[in-house]
Structures are given as C-alpha cells and as structure tokens.
Amino acid sequence: MPDPNSAPVLELRGVSKRFGAVQALTEVDLAVHPGEVVALVGDNGAGKSTLVKTIAGVNNPDEGSIVWQGKDVTIRGPHDAQKIGIATVYQDLALADNLDVVGNLFLGSEITSAGILDEISMEGRSRELLETLSIRIPSVRIPVASLSGGQRQTVAIARSLIGDPKVVMLDEPTAALGVEQTAQVLDLVERLRDRGLGVILISHNMVDVMAVADTVAVLRLGRNNGFFDAKRTNQQEIISAITGATDNAVTRRAARTGGEGPGAG
Question: Where in the numbering of this chain does the ABC transporter domain appear (predicted)?
C-alpha cells in the first residue's frame, strides 16, 4: 500500500492534447505514488492510450505539466521517459520471437566487455531478476516463441525493469490470457508494488482492476471523471463513471466518501 504521506513520484497537472480538430485530452490530472497501483480505466476513445503515450514521451502535451519527483519535466521522446525512470509495456509486448529470454531482457541494453557481448553476466542478471520477481520460466535460454502468453507477458514486464525504473505502465497486460496466466500477471503486478514501484495499469477488466488496484482513475471523453479508492468503491460505481451514468457527480461523491483525487494517497 502507498504511504498516504508520501509525495507522488509522477504527477500530471492539467494535461491537454489535440490532434488537429480532435481534442483527445482536456485538463487531465493524475498522480502515482511509490508502491501504488493506479488503474486507468475508461471506454474506447476515453483518452487512455493518448495519456499513456504522453507519459511515455510518444506524444507531447499541448498544455499542462508533468511533474517527476516534485520537479517539472519535459519529456520529448521515449528515451527521455526511460532515462528519468518511466518504463512502458505495450499490449503487443515487442518481443523478438527468435531470441531467447536473455536476449529479449537485454535487447537494446546489452552488456559488453571489450566490445563483445558478455553473455555470462547477462544470463546471471536474468536469472537473478526472474527469481526476485518469482517468475517461473523453463530456462532463460528458451526462445520466447516457445513460452505461453502469460510467460511472455511476464518476460516483457521483467525487461522493463532492466533500467531500474520508478514507474511502470502496463497496457492491457491480461488481455487474451487465460485464468491461470492472468493470475500470474496480477501476482507480478503486486510484486512490483511491493518493490516500491508506482504502477499504472490500463485495463478493461474490472475484476483485474479490483484485484490489484489501490486507486482507480476514470477517463471519460478525454477528461477526468472520478478517482476512487479501490477498497472503498465497487464495480458498479466505477462503471457508472466510465459510462457517464452519473457523470461528474461521481467525482464529487468519490471525494466525499473516500475516493481519492490526484495528489492524494
């Protein structure tokens, strides 16, 4: 659980984004604390993907600010996001099927010695990372093409930790997974939280959201439409905010009954 007195590691303040005549985001706020899982939910077209890409540096906000560890930052591209400590695992995973687990974990971040790949060091660090996260893989030298969907997802998440990030964004990590594989991924999300990382979980699955989230942030038509303490709310209330059945009244009611707004724990 996040420390209610801790400062957010990542905060968005009034972020807006336009694509031509289309207003994709309007004055969106979001806060993520160390050791907190924030579920970002909303219907198709609500702005979730745009917001994730803005945090990840793919899009540049037109207005508003991004605050990292208390300081305003400008994220001009994905490299900037990775450099300050934001890692993103997209739904397509971007794994290389022809490479083994070690090759995928260090793809683009290879360890070299005298200009030669240090396979021993990379294999050792791979084993250590997977063991720390309790990820069970038959072998770190098995091609990822041979792994199950759940195992592939856990490898992609583990790869995001190679750069020692402080915030990890997971885009629909349980989509198309079976029950057992979904449980493995959700267990890994909880272990990321236990390591003190801030996690942004984008998901359409309310069962998954309620299972691991500390805070649920609802987007509707590119705007905030509610922040909820996951332990003090229910699926019906969140779905009402997603669909607009109660519209901004949900936001006000959440504030009165314990749903937390941006910047709160």
Answer: 10-246
> Residues 6 or more apart from 222 whose CB is under 8 A from it?
23, 24, 25, 26, 28, 46, 47, 50
CB neighbour list of residue 60: distance below 8 Å, 6 or more residues apart: 54, 75, 76
Task: Report pTM.
Answer: 0.88
Q: What are phi and psi of 209, to 5 degrees?
A: -60, -50
Strands, sheet with 167-171, edge to edge from the N-terminal-most edge strand:
86-89, 167-171, 198-202, 37-41, 215-220, 223-229
pLDDT at 202 over 70: yes
Residues in the chain: 265
Backbone angles phi, psi at 26, to 5 degrees: -130, 110
Distances (CA, A) of 67 to 26, 32, 220: 17, 11, 23
Token pair listed for 152: 């592939």
**% pLDDT > 90, the chain:** 82
